[in-house]
Design goal:
heterodimer; A: alpha/beta; 37 helices; B: alpha/beta; Glucose Oxidase, domain 1; Rossmann fold; ten-stranded mixed β-sheet; globular
Chain lengths: ~1100, ~375
């Protein structure tokens, strides 16, 4: 059946900000869906609050709404655009939940809008634990024994039945949010209580534990003619007990006989049919008992997911694109396979390589968080690698994760190479518990002499995988038994390369450098070959140039004689380096392709648009290391390589690449270094007559104290060369400073700590500018809402700057232009300034793409990453017709989104270390409304309609808090405050009620929170940490989903937003209309 | 472990030589080199008699992971002439496994070679068509092996059925069992039918499924004549899968014609389907590199539904057969449009090119066994 002609326009719901469990894979799938539906001639309307996405580019959809993904905002969009249908299955859990809310509030019915992909009853049947279980029982499929409960009392009864340990899963949350594994009653009570609070329907499932069973996933597609296919099977290396998002996973499944695999496939189809997913992709999870093959269905997601993005990249089969086409009526056999272009999409991909995905964690950002992996996802990103064997793909994946490893062991800090090997108890502990370093501990265990059986007993990881790790140890032994690089045989070197050992690992064995090993290897004629990802194991010719490296006989790469540009991507998402950089890389690819270059994308992150095979002309799914990039460079010899769009990942490679003769285009790595180097940078500022906060550098604690005597407290201290404020701290006294330098960070002669006088009460601003080497255009000036000291990535900010006078902005512009010219910037530059008493201080300059590029592009209506890419490839700003970018008349507010709900008990205070995972944007003609939209989009539960506000601020803030309190009272809020704050309010005549601090006695503030008697917390911290009174209050606000504002400037902005919304409400407007002229 | 194994070579008739490491039996073996794209099921492939005369290259790179399980055999021995893979697992990991792949092949006398760029081999076959080849662990001179590859007989014109069929007739009684993860083809009502299966190299899972669906299965050698087959008065005759060129099996065409003339319902799978086509005066032809895998989309032209099928054939039935009107095309391959199933409009004759019994492969087409049965029930009444 061809496309439906009864539909004219379709509304696609995006997934909103990047959070743990829902990342840029939905930008990839949403973008594909928009393209696919427009190709079919539908008018596509999009709603998504996340500006750092390709899907919200004005070219992607016909009508683009950067608005909150709430049913109220979506109803306004529906009223304006009158779509015929809503497609909710491409926006993750957010999309599905929005669809259910639209249905439940009667919006769909009222406006005569139908749902495509999955109906509400289907979504409920798949997502509601009890309904799902009933459905599976009906068709004879086993599920774990379980009970759905709505109260703690009922949960205790359920626990009696399923026993301990058991698994608690809240209904309708994603990424296992709020769930956990309980080993004892105490944990059980805690997790159930949290889960009930976090489930939107206040329901959790108490489930029998199948810890240690093997875990599998299937990506299944179905069309409305009931044709079903499996796109990809995935096996988790970590057995049941670790969330699949946190597991190392492998495609295809490797340890199942055909009979076991086909039974799983049969169950998958039975399940999707019974649940009633009409069209599209679904993800199913299974567990298999390794002792007898018993199988159970764990869960099903009736939508595209993180796993389907992985499956698409792993097979070349574009699930989201197909899901969109199936939703509008096509059947699988009517759609061509994009890769072969000869055969239909109605088939099951066969792959002739192994794909390994490794999660990327951010525990270093949350030192108080429990790093044990369980049923709740904690990773913030992932890397994928492709190889012809598991061993090769596994080592490539480990070096793609960029966590300091270059494979399995044999790096500089390998304790089995230089250092003290871990103790047996340490190894046992890391094997027995899911944790982010378990893969490396498997190697330690073998090297420490443990047997495969012993390791299996502790980990329950399938012996097949353990044997693979053991194989790698044998090769490592052979390498280490070789006395020198000179004595290494060609045969062993080739075998090591085929098993995924990096040149750098081999270098570590022989005390050589990576470049030396590389040169030696090339002399021997040992080079990688490139193979195609073609969906069909070479049975048909592939048209799509999607490559991976491996070490085989035949290289399949087709090299044209067109001029080429290589763009290095940003690798796995992490805090501080997320989808924003992928956005920039994609824009570079688009711009350079339009400029006539053949574009080459190199990246290792399967969630991204950059690794979609039609984003660039040639896609290399490879680790971002110097070796891997140089190998591709050897093959393709591009005109230039772009390193400034992918964040720190490619920048770190710049020096090695230049040394090896690669031409890096745009701002030179030398200039980037110049800006990073404190001394040379200070000289430049002096030269330009620009101010910077008094500062210094210290190589030890004594030097640090000396610096503070000169610059004064408070100081901001941080290690050099970091992104996202890693290890940064605001220090008010000498004692803390000494402790920080001695124990907090790595300090050495070549890694000094940097100290800056902290400008209290200053306003921070960010500026993004573009320079072509001659002219400079200031693209966006962003004023931070939070005062200086909060990491710019965690701060809310607004364009245009709401409070800064024009003469200050002019000075900022002048300074920016001077800096760009002086640093010989070609491409993008980001500058951070602090404004104190109308004095402009330069905080730092990064002559590269910054995190704010997509937000600025959306706010000003100019795609600045594209403009910059063209500057870098030789088209001047003048030639592009861009000489000035006017300040927009509407307001755009960027808001951060934090993962605190994933790390129970962690204090949520903002500081110089970045902690947010994603961002939202509120855009409106009115700045107050834009701010309100940003709050709504970020999921902040600001009580716009009134309620009780708990106020507790530090002494220095008492005076300012009075103003906040008066405003709140004027807006009709009831106030409760702790003794100190209340006294200050009393003195000013502001009415409030007293509430006990925690240590004073009950009932205290936590009791009020638990009883839902507080709707908003305003708390400025005096100290930090989850053990302090205030830390506990802030942590509890997360558990109880009460909005908590920790800065007075944030509170003032929120009040302005509340007042605007109360008096004027809000409207919605498409991005295309903001820039209609 | 793999290190102590001997070097081995795969040589093709076009002069290409691939180097690797031997496993399984030592020796020297030739045949037509084909590739199979199934991700699972190497044991079923090794024991499928239709691979007689062929060296099989697996496109899935990691083989041997789950060892060998007694229940998963498709016949009583391995038939492939050689086995070409990228990497052999050092251990088998499955609770049912009783043996590792290396030992099994060694015991079965099959020469294996690992470490080969199997994707390069596959691409070569795709581009040039199936090629004759030799695998060897004993002769390591490339030129000698290329000569031996060229000396191999071509598949066209080869009767390999004689080498795989059974010597004596027998009765098959094993059905399917969920205990070893075999799906049931469904429940049945009504009579038990007497079915004579002509063994051209029958896969056991065909026999298991027929038994499970209420057929009393008698299996007879390929040389049995139609008169002998019909003498026992079976309710239907089934022609099995098998190796080699269908065009040269005159005795099989005769048997099929005899059954057709008699009016006894005639069923067939794979080679059986090709024999039926030949008996109906259709023609078969050699495909460039055949269909060997578990992901081939086939459309049932009556329902327009697509099933993902297991396939293993180097020859196919030509279209001319359908021009004269008495034979109907029932199934078509969506990848290359070739014939996948037919039925006679007036007579009780049904057959498919692909493998509804799967083993290895998807179970989408199990319904065909039920359809066979329904056709028989209808024929009776």
């Amino acid at each position: 059946m061809p496309r439906r002609d009864d539909l004219e326009s379709i509304l696609i719901i995006g997934s909103g900000p990047i959070v743990i469990g829902q990342a840029c894979e939905f930008d990839y799938s949403g973008t594909q869906a928009c393209k696919a539906l427009r190709e079919e001639g539908y008018r596509v309307i999009l709603v998504n609050s996340n500006p750092a996405t390709i899907m919200t580019d004005p070219e992607t959809a016909d009508r683009t709404y950067i608005e909150p993904i709430t049913w109220q905002a979506i109803e306004k969009i529906i009223e304006r655009e009158k779509p015929d249908a809503v497609l909710p299955t491409l926006g993750g859990q957010t999309g599905l939940n929005a669809a259910i809310e639209l249905h439940e509030h009667g919006v769909l019915e009222k406006h005569g809008v139908i749902l495509l992909g999955a109906q509400v009853d289907v979504i409920k049947k798949a997502e509601d634990r009890q309904l799902f279980r009933d459905a599976m029982e009906k068709i004879g499929l086993s599920c774990p024994q379980s009970h759905v409960v709505g109260t703690l009392e009922a949960a205790m009864v359920a626990m009696e039945d399923v026993g301990l340990p058991n698994i608690i899963r809240p209904s309708f949350t994603m990424g296992g949010k709020g769930g956990g594994i309980a080993y004892n009653q105490e944990e059980f009570r805690a997790i159930v209580t949290r889960g009930l609070a976090l489930s939107p329907v206040h329901e959790v499932l108490v489930e029998q534990s199948v810890l240690g069973w093997k875990e599998f996933e299937l990506e299944v597609m179905r069309d409305h003619a009931d044709n079903c296919v499996v796109i990809c099977s995935i096996e988790n290396l970590d057995p049941m007990g670790v969330h699949t998002g946190d597991s190392i996973t492998v495609a295809p499944a490797l340890t199942l006989t055909d009979r076991e695999y086909q039974r799983m496939r049969d169950w998958g189809f039975a399940c999707i049919r019974e649940i009633g997913v009409e069209t599209g992709g679904s993800n199913l999870q299974f567990a298999i008992n390794p002792d007898n093959g018993d199988m159970i269905v764990i869960e099903m997601n009736p939508r595209v997911s993180r796993s389907s993005a992985l499956a698409s990249k792993a097979t070349g089969f574009p699930i989201a694109k197909l899901a969109a086409k199936l939703a509008v009526g096509y059947t699988l056999d009517e759609i061509d396979n994009d890769i072969t272009r000869k055969t239909p999409a109605c088939f099951e991909p066969s792959i002739d390589y192994i794909v390994v995905k490794t999660p990327r964690f951010a525990f270093e950002k949350f030192p108080d968080a429990d790093s044990t992996l369980g049923s709740q996802m904690k990773s913030v990103g992932e890397a994928m690698a492709i190889g012809r064997t598991f061993k090769e793909a596994f080592q490539k994946a480990l070096r793609s994760s960029e966590e300091g490893y270059i494979g399995l062991g044999l790096n500089k800090r390998d304790p089995f190479l230089n250092g003290t090997p871990p103790s047996r108890p340490d190894i046992d502990e890391h094997l027995g518990r899911g944790n982010s370093r378990r893969a490396h501990y498997l190697r330690y265990a073998f090297r420490a002499g443990m047997t495969l059986d012993e390791i299996f007993e502790l980990t329950k990881i399938d012996p097949w995988f353990l044997a693979q790790i053991e194989d790698l140890q044998r090769t490592e032994d052979e390498l280490r038994a070789t006395s020198s690089l000179h004595d290494l045989t060609d045969d062993l070197l080739r075998r090591a390369k085929r098993e995924g050992f990096a040149d750098a690992q081999i270098a570590a064995v022989f005390g050589a450098t990576m470049l030396e090993v590389r040169a030696d290897r090339l002399r021997r004629g040992i080079k990688p070959t490139y193979k195609l990802v073609d969906t069909c194991a070479a049975e048909f010719e592939a048209e799509t140039p999607y490559y991976y490296s491996t070490w085989e006989d035949e290289c399949e790469a087709r090299v044209s004689d067109r001029p080429k540009m290589m763009i290095l991507g940003s690798g796995p998402n992490r805090i501080g380096q997320g989808v924003e950089f992928d956005y920039c890389c994609v824009h570079a690819a688009f711009a350079l392709r339009d400029a006539g270059f053949e574009t080459i994308m190199v990246n290792s992150n399967p969630e991204t648009v950059s690794t979609d095979y039609d984003t660039s002309d040639l896609l290399f799914f490879e680790p971002l290391t110097a070796e891997d990039v140089l190998n591709i460079h050897d093959l393709l010899k591009p005109e230039g390589v772009i390193v400034q769009f992918g964040g720190q990942t490619p920048l770190k490679l710049a020096k090695d690449l230049e040394d090896a003769g690669v031409r890096i285009i745009g701002t030179s790595p030398y200039s980037i270094d110049l800006a990073e180097d404190r001394e040379s940078f200070a000289a430049i500022l002096d030269d330009l007559g620009l101010r910077q906060p008094p500062n210094g550098m210290a190589r030890n604690a004594d030097e640090a104290v000396e610096v503070t005597r000169r610059v004064g407290f408070p100081v901001l201290v941080r290690p050099s060369y970091v992104l996202g404020g890693r290890g940064m701290m605001l220090v008010y006294d000498e004692e803390t400073l000494v402790r920080y330098v001695r124990t907090g960070v790595e300090v050495s002669d070549d890694r000094p700590v940097l100290l800056d006088r902290f400008l209290e009460g200053a306003i921070e601003i960010d500026v993004d500018a573009i320079c072509d080497g001659t002219d400079v255009v200031v693209a966006g000036i962003m004023e931070h809402i939070e005062e200086a000291g909060v990491h710019s990535g965690d701060s809310q900010c607004a364009i245009p700057p709401p409070t800064l006078p024009e003469h200050v902005l002019d000075e900022v512009r002048r300074a920016t232009i001077a800096l760009a010219k002086r640093l010989n910037v070609i491409g993008l530059m980001n500058v951070q300034y602090a404004i104190q008493n109308e004095q402009v201080y330069v905080l730092e300059v990064n002559p590269r793409a910054s995190r704010t590029v997509p937000y600025v592009s959306k706010a000003i209506g100019v795609p600045i990453a594209k403009v910059a890419a063209l500057c870098m490839s030789g088209t001047s700003l003048k030639e592009q017709g861009i000489t000035e970018i006017p300040m927009p008349v509407h307001s755009s507010v960027k808001g951060p989104v934090f993962p605190f709900d994933r790390f129970p008990g962690v204090d949520i205070v903002l500081g110089p270390e970045m902690q947010s995972t994603g961002e939202v944007m509120g855009i409106d003609p009115d700045v107050g409304v834009a701010f309100a939209k940003s709050l709504m989009s970020a999921g902040s539960k600001i009580p716009f309609d009134g309620g009780t506000v708990f106020l507790s601020v530090k002494k220095e803030d008492h005076e300012a808090a009075v103003f906040i309190a008066q405003e709140l009272r004027r807006l009709g809020y009831r106030l409760v405050a702790t003794s100190g704050t209340r006294k200050a309010l009393d003195r000013a005549g502001v009415e409030s009620d007293l509430v006990n601090k925690i240590h004073v006695g009950r009932p205290h503030v936590l009791d009020l929170l638990t009883d839902k008697k507080i709707d908003l917390i305003i708390n400025t911290p005096t100290g930090r940490g989850c053990r302090t009174d205030e830390g506990q209050i802030r942590a509890a606000s997360v558990a109880h989903e009460v909005a908590c504002i920790t800065t007075l400037s944030g509170a003032a902005a929120a009040i302005a937003a509340i007042e605007r919304i109360r008096t004027r409400g809000y409207g919605v407007m498409a991005l295309q209309d903001y820039f209609a002229n | 472990m793999t290190r102590s194994r001997p070097p081995a070579l795969l040589a093709l008739e076009d002069g290409t030589v691939y180097r690797g490491t031997g496993f399984g039996a030592a020796g020297d073996s030739g045949g037509e080199v084909v590739f199979n794209t199934s991700l699972t099921g190497y044991q079923e492939i090794l024991t499928d008699p239709s691979y007689k005369g062929q060296i099989v290259t697996m496109t899935a790179p990691l083989i041997g992971n789950y060892g060998i399980s007694v229940e998963d055999a498709e016949s009583d021995r391995a038939w492939v002439e050689g086995f070409v893979i990228r990497e052999l697992s050092t251990i088998p990991s499955n609770f049912r496994s009783t043996e590792d792949l290396h030992s099994y092949l060694e015991r079965s006398g099959v020469v294996g070679i690992e470490g080969v760029d199997t994707r390069a081999v596959t691409k070569r076959i795709r581009e040039q068509g199936a090629l004759r080849g030799v695998v060897s662990t004993t002769e390591l001179d490339a030129d000698t092996l290329v000569d031996r590859a060229r000396a191999q007989p071509t598949m066209e014109g080869r009767d390999l059925v004689q080498e795989v069929t059974r010597a004596r007739e027998g009765v098959w009684t094993e059905g399917v069992s969920e205990k070893v993860f075999l799906p049931s083809p469904g429940a049945f009502e009504g009579p038990v039918f007497d079915l004579t299966v002509v063994d051209y190299g029958a896969k056991w899972n065909i026999l298991r499924n027929l038994t499970a669906l209420g057929f009393r299965v008698r299996v007879v050698p390929a040389s049995t004549t139609s008169a002998e087959v019909l003498a026992s008065g079976p309710d239907a005759v089934f022609l099995s899968n098998g190796p080699g060129d269908p065009a040269v099996l005159g005795y099989a065409h005769d048997l099929a014609r005899g059954v057709i003339e008699d009016g006894t319902p005639l069923l067939g799978i794979c080679l059986g389907h090709q024999i039926i086509a030949e008996a109906l005066d259709g023609k078969t032809f050699k495909l460039p590199f055949g269909h060997h895998g578990a992901n081939h989309p086939v459309m049932d032209l009556a329902t327009r539904k697509v099933e993902i099928t297991a396939q293993n054939h180097g020859f196919a039935v030509g279209e001319a057969l359908f021009e004269r009107g008495d034979v109907e095309l029932t199934h078509r391959n969506l990848n290359d449009g070739t014939v996948e199933g037919l039925r006679h409009r007036e007579r009780p004759i049904f057959c498919v090119q692909y493998h509804p019994e799967a083993a290895p492969g998807p179970h989408d087409s199990l319904y065909l066994f039920r359809r066979f049965r329904e056709e028989l029930v209808r024929h009776r009444t």
